[in-house]
Amino acid sequence: MTASRLGRAAGLIAATGKLAARALERAARVIRAPLPVLYHVSIIALSAAIAASLPVTFSFAAGRLLAYWSLVQNERLFLISTEIVVAFVLILVFNHARTNWRNRTLSKMARAAGMVHVTPRTGVLARRTIRRSKERQAAMRDIMLIGSTGLRTFVDPKGDLHAALQTCRTAKIMLLDPESRGALERARIIPDPAITQESLRRQVREAIDFLAALRTVPQKSIQLKLYPDPPLWKLAILGDYVWVQHYHPGLDVQVLPEYVFVHRQDPTSLFPAFYQYFARRWNDPAIPEYDLMKDELVYRDAAGDEVGRRRFGSTPADPGLGVAHGRSRGGWVRRKVARLISGAIAFRP
Question: Which of 167, 229, 304, 338 could cross-link to 182 by cystine, CB 3.0-4.6 Å?
Fold first, then answer.
């Protein structure tokens, strides 16, 4: 009997100890996070004060309104002025509501397209924000870039991708071939007289030297291609983000806004379209790859076999020889000879 009483007492003491421990734990939580508790207490006290003051407030407002109305009910000028003010306020409110509704609709369309940001290029603060965002997005990621000469983009220490190229993992870069017709067209449509084919050649040369120096860094892959047609889009694919600008004829690309799209699992997003555009351009066999070690342009056929080379700054190979279209001069001659032989055999009586 005594043992059972002792067991019950021990159980009661243990239960009391557990309850005390839980109470202490809750008290410690309250002490550690006093702001939520104070916030809720303040909200409850404020709501109680407002509810208690409503009768007095309405009584005071009604009395004051009746007093003022007895004075101004026969004042036509005051009534007309009040109507004008109220109409003006209503016009402002409805215009603001309509503007907000239109902006909300545009925001939904932008989100559906995957666009998350539009930033102007003008201003020191805006350029600094763009540069830091690109550095953060490209850190230890892959960079895919289509540009014109790359001088102000990554060669200049203040360029958007100068530091990003030094911290990225791999980089695939496409620049304008200064010896192509596209470079001549680009230099012609820019109103700045300082932009000539020679200046474009010099800027691309500086970009090549910068990339060649980066290629010596261990565990970093840098690939460069030079495309021949006039530039259309300036793309910078940094991980899950793509920064887009348009090369407008007659305008400097630095004064145009830059649009940012993010990669999402959404078929309406434009990120895959820009990514596929870059991939199709990069895999085009008609666009030669630049050998940064030997300082030569390498032409390949559709199968990826090398068919010709030329030094930077030299005249592009004659398309009739097949180099620019993936065919070597020797193959062209062999095909001509084979056609002559087959024609002679077919003509034999």
Answer: 229
Other CB atoms within 10 A of residue 209 CB: 13
Q: Which residue reads 């090369």 in tokens?
A: 247
CA-closest candidate to residue 232, choices 247, 217, 242: 247
Any domain includes 136: yes
Q: Which domain holds residue 151?
A: 116-284
Residue 100 lies in a domain: no
Q: Is the pTM of this model over 0.70?
A: no
Q: For residue 309, which phi and psi values (nearest 5 degrees)?
A: -140, 155
User: Which amino acid is it at 162?
Assistant: H
CB atoms within 10 A of CB 325: 15
Question: Does residue 184 lie in a domain region?
Answer: yes
3-state helix, strand, coil split of the chain in percent (to 5) is 55, 15, 30
Domain count, the chain: 1
Phi, psi values for residue 17, rounded to 5°:
-65, -40
Q: Are 266 and 115 in contact (CB under 8 A)?
A: no
| pLDDT by 10s per residue, the chain, length 349 | 455 655 565 566 666 666 666 766 665 555 555 556 677 778 888 888 888 888 888 888 887 777 777 766 666 777 778 788 888 999 999 999 999 999 999 888 888 889 998 888 777 788 888 889 998 988 888 999 999 999 999 999 988 899 999 889 899 999 999 989 989 888 888 888 888 889 999 999 999 999 999 888 877 889 999 999 999 999 999 989 999 999 988 788 888 889 999 998 888 889 999 999 999 999 999 999 999 988 899 998 888 888 888 888 766 554 433 344 344 444 444 444 444 444 444 434 4
Tell me the C-alpha distance between 240 and 68, whole Å. Answer: 64
Q: Which CATH number covers residue 221?
A: 3.30.870.10
